[in-house]
Design brief:
Layout: H1 2-8, H2 13-20, E1 23-26, E2 32-38, E3 41-47, E4 52-54, H3 63-75, E5 85-86, H4 94-104, H5 106-113, H6 117-126, E6 130-131, E7 137-144, E8 147-154, E9 163-169, H7 178-198
Antiparallel strand pairs: 1-2, 2-3, 3-4, 5-9, 6-7, 7-8, 8-9
Helix pairs in contact: 1-3, 4-5, 5-7, 6-7
């Protein structure tokens, strides 16, 4: 992460803000600050050290989301969202890791929720997921202003088991590398499962 920070220090702050959808401002103490929502929570990223904390609680966010933010600042080029979803397989090199990705995302959701669409719906809505007209139940979630992930369920029948998948807006490669997308999908899966347990 130190290497990424050293690269970002050299970047123009206004261009970084434009490309990530963040707001950049200098506070009364003369410190540069980026602000953008992360999983729906307003987050502040300091400049030039690029450390992120919750704007509300002022507590540092966890190291995994810190890493995702750094990769986002490094990769984002300002491309707007495409408005259509693609699978992990369609990401660069995604085909090689799609089975593993499905194993710790969609398969985990299937193990937890099975055919219980009502519980899946409650968990997704609790997280602020926006309903999508896909599958039998689907919700979209904003990781960053221009990065959307979706969790979708297709109910099974006597021939096919119930299937869950994590999908990405087709523009995601303009904002995150493939390995960071894998981490984001894993995080979303855990969030949905944790939210479901919280509803019990």
């Amino acid at each position: 992460m130190t290497e990424i920070r050293s690269i970002l220090i050299e970047r123009d702050v206004n261009q970084l803000a434009q490309c990530t959808g963040a707001i950049y401002q200098i506070n009364e103490a003369g410190e540069g600050l980026f602000q953008l929502p992360v999983w729906g929570e307003m987050t502040t990223v300091t400049h030039p050290d690029f450390v992120a904390y919750s704007s509300g609680t002022r507590q540092s966010i966890d190291v995994v989301n810190q890493g995702l933010l750094l990769y986002h600042f490094l990769t984002a080029d300002g491309t707007p969202e495409a408005g259509n979803l693609i699978s992990f397989t369609e990401l660069p090199d995604g085909r090689f890791y799609s089975k593993a990705f499905q194993g710790y995302t969609g398969s985990e959701l299937a193990r937890h929720y099975k055919n219980d669409l009502a519980s899946f719906r409650e968990a997704a809505q609790h997280l602020g997921g926006l309903p999508q007209n896909l599958g039998d139940e689907a919700y979209a979630f904003k990781l960053f202003p221009n990065v959307t992930l979706a969790a979708i369920c297709w109910l099974g029948d006597e021939d096919f088991p119930t299937n869950y998948q994590i999908l990405f807006d087709a523009s995601v490669t303009h904002h995150l590398p493939t390995d960071a997308c894998a981490i984001a999908g894993s995080l979303l899966t855990r969030k949905i499962i944790k939210a479901g347990k919280a509803q019990l």
